[in-house]
Structure prediction request, 130 residues.
Amino acid sequence: MGLVLRGVFVMSQSADSNDVRQRLVDAEENLARAARRVRVLRGEMLCGHYNPDELDEAIKEYREAKAQAGKAHVAWIQARRQECRKRGTPQEAPPEALGISLPRVLFFRWLYETGRMSGWPESKVGKNAI
Prediction:
């Protein structure tokens, strides 16, 4: 049995990392709850029911929950990496192992970073490399 976190399926882990995983789940639930509260208060504000102290408190809680979720996510990643090192399994397969050529990876990275389809610097890997 596994768990889905942020759209990623996670296999069952050892007892050491169960605590870290549970902290991550709790932190993400707190973040969702705080975000929901801010959305509700923003909606009330737009309707004319504005309580600045309550909104400030909700935003403060949201920021704290976001920071805690970030810390929990980093701790989970570190625990996962440590577990992979113990087992001797690779954390990530290289693109070539998946049948993806390096020029294609470079193009997709460039496309993701720039967000545009035109202007690919052909001098990097050649015009017909993709």
Remarks:
- DSSP finds three helices and two strands in the chain.
- The first helix runs from residue 15 to 46.
- The chain has a mean pLDDT of 76.
